[in-house]
Write a structure and sequence with these properties.
The structure is a single chain. The protein is an all-alpha fold. The protein is about 75% helix and about 0% strand. It is built from 20 helices and 2 strands. A hairpin with a 6-residue loop joins strand 1 and strand 2 (about 15-20). The longest helix has about 80 residues, at about 460-535. The protein is elongated.
């Protein structure tokens, strides 16, 4: 990692530093590009929306946080910008104000707060043993920390919520469908990459061998890659399908992170794979989300054929078709197996190979749902959105040819071998054929078999249980309140009875005291009378 901070502000907090290095240059390139294009798209997409000003206010604030955390060179400025991005993205999710949007916003903000708590805990532990707050200062602090394993676990979980790692992914498929299309594009294209960058900044990648955590990341990553596909194909909303696709793709990037944790000598090559995959996913996923908005608004102005091509190109790239950025990204990832420092288990290599076919199945499902079929008119909104979407599609397509020469990492470049064209093509064809065959079989043989998994999947199971627990707890509290009230009432009555008894005893004592006094006087007089009579006698 090279590059020195370009801006230092020592008068703010403990001193904050912003700058660029090899990692942040690539992240800044695709992040700034996607925010810019989606902003231009949103200008037309939200035309006539009464909450347009509010949307752009929070859009710009979230963008500032996203760009700021990429430029940050110390953990204080990183966290401040990360929090700014996180909380200002909430109004983007609930923009439409529908019950679904508010529910998605609630899930988003609850998980965001949990993630912030985990991240802050990790940063406090790191700062307690590091010599400073800069990334260079903390690079060696985490491996040498007494709390190393706890810090790594907190970082993985805290940033895993943002990155959509299973089982912390449930906010993505809820937030993406309800947010305005340009907001969905930046959520999936760049905001979730903030979690990935958090892993890169705060995990001891290249510094210490942590095979246990590395293997955990690879297992969770591959599980997420296939889980996203299995649940995604059961969805009916194209934006929900894309959300599960992001979960799947982020799982593949987590495999590269796990490789860097398990084999620190291979982190240079793994970092190159992460950068290529991040750029590839951001451009193509952004193009697909914006394409959903165009396809749903009428397409005659441009022609169904061109709109179909604009949707198919990024879909093929995500599936890893030859001569696309997806082929370069998957080649970079799979090539880690050839690194002498890496000893992948056989199931990792097999899982990565099969993930291309799985992605192709999911993209076939997406295309089936979104490709224009019978639109007769193009709205003014779709005409205004077309230029921004078209530019992003072209850039995403060009990335397949430019990536190998643009991203030198660890002393080399990533290129797709000529003989790899067929190996990249068969998963795409096989996945598409598998989807068509499965759909035909279900329609012909078992038409009643329509598996529908609600968006949020595990949340749909956990939510009733959580509601039941909350109801039980509320009932317990109410019963305790009633018991407490009953006990207090009994105590009050008992206190009243005791007071009355005390008053009666006091009165009795008073009466007795009077009788004693009278009796004593009577005896005294009797004695005097007796003595007087004795003297007379």
């Amino acid at each position: 990692m090279t590059g020195a901070p370009a801006l230092e502000l020592d008068v703010i907090l403990t001193g904050i530093r912003f700058g660029l290095d090899d990692i942040s240059r690539v992240f800044l390139a695709f992040t700034a590009l996607l925010w810019l294009i989606c902003g231009a798209y949103a200008h037309f997409y939200l035309k006539g929306d009464r909450a347009r000003t509010r949307f752009f206010s929070f859009y710009l604030a979230s963008m500032a946080g996203n760009v700021g955390l990429i430029l940050a060179q110390d953990m204080v400025s990183f966290y401040l910008c990360f929090a700014l991005m996180t909380f200002t993205a909430y109004p983007l999710v609930i923009h439409d104000g529908t019950p679904e949007a508010r529910r998605a916003g609630t899930v988003y903000i609850v998980l965001a707060v949990i993630g912030e708590a985990l991240i802050v805990s990790a940063l406090i532990l790191i700062a307690s043993e590091a010599e400073g707050t800069g990334f260079r200062d903390i690079a060696g602090a985490v491996p040498a920390s007494r709390h190393r394993d706890l810090v790594v676990a907190l970082v993985l979980a805290g940033f895993g919520i943002k990155a959509g790692a299973i089982p912390l992914h449930v906010w993505l498929p809820l937030a993406h469908p309800v947010a305005p299309t340009p907001a969905s594009a930046v959520l999936s294209g760049v905001i979730i990459k903030a979690g990935l960058l958090g892993w890169i900044r705060f995990l001891p990648l290249g510094e210490a061998a942590l095979p246990g955590f590395g293997m955990l990341c690879m297992v969770v990553g591959l599980a997420g890659a296939f889980y996203g596909v299995l649940v995604g194909v059961a969805q009916d909303n194209p934006k929900t399908v894309l959300a599960y696709s992001s979960i799947s793709q982020m799982g593949l990037m987590l495999v590269a992170i796990g490789t860097g944790l398990a084999w620190p000598q291979a982190w240079g090559a793994a970092a190159g794979a992460v950068l290529i995959y991040s750029l590839h996913h951001a451009l193509n996923k952004g193009a697909l989300f914006l394409g959903v908005g165009v396809a749903g608004s009428g397409t005659v102005f441009l022609g169904r054929g061109l709109v179909t091509a604009g949707l198919l190109l990024p879909a093929l790239a995500l599936a890893g078709a030859p001569f696309t950025s997806g082929a370069a990204a998957k080649t970079a990832l799979v090539s880690l197996a050839g690194d002498p420092a890496v000893a992948w288990p056989a199931w990792v290599a097999w899982g990565l190979s099969l993930s291309s076919m799985a992605t192709a199945v999911l993209m076939a499902r997406f295309c089936f749902l979104v490709l224009p079929a019978g639109k007769d008119q193009a709205s003014a909104r779709s005409r205004g959105c077309l230029p921004a979407w078209g530019i992003l599609v072209v850039l995403a397509a060009a990335a397949g040819w430019l990536l190998p020469s643009m991203l030198p990492m660890a002393g080399g470049t990533v290129a797709v071998p000529a003989g790899a064209v067929l190996s990249a093509l068969w998963p795409v064809i096989g996945g598409a054929a598998l989807f068509v065959a499965a759909r035909h079989w279900i329609r012909r043989s078992v038409p009643a078999l329509r598996i529908r998994i609600p968006a949020g999947d595990v949340l749909a199971l956990a939510e009733p249980a959580a509601c039941g627990l909350c109801s039980a707890w509320n009932g317990l509290v109410e019963n305790a309140g009633r018991l407490r009230g009953s006990a207090v009432e009994r105590l009050r009555r008992g206190a009243g009875a005791a007071a009355r008894l005390a008053a009666a005893v006091t009165a009795a004592e008073t009466r007795i005291s009077r009788w004693i006094t009278a009796g004593a006087a009577f005896l005294f007089l009797a004695v005097l009378l007796f003595r007087s009579m004795s003297g007379i006698g």
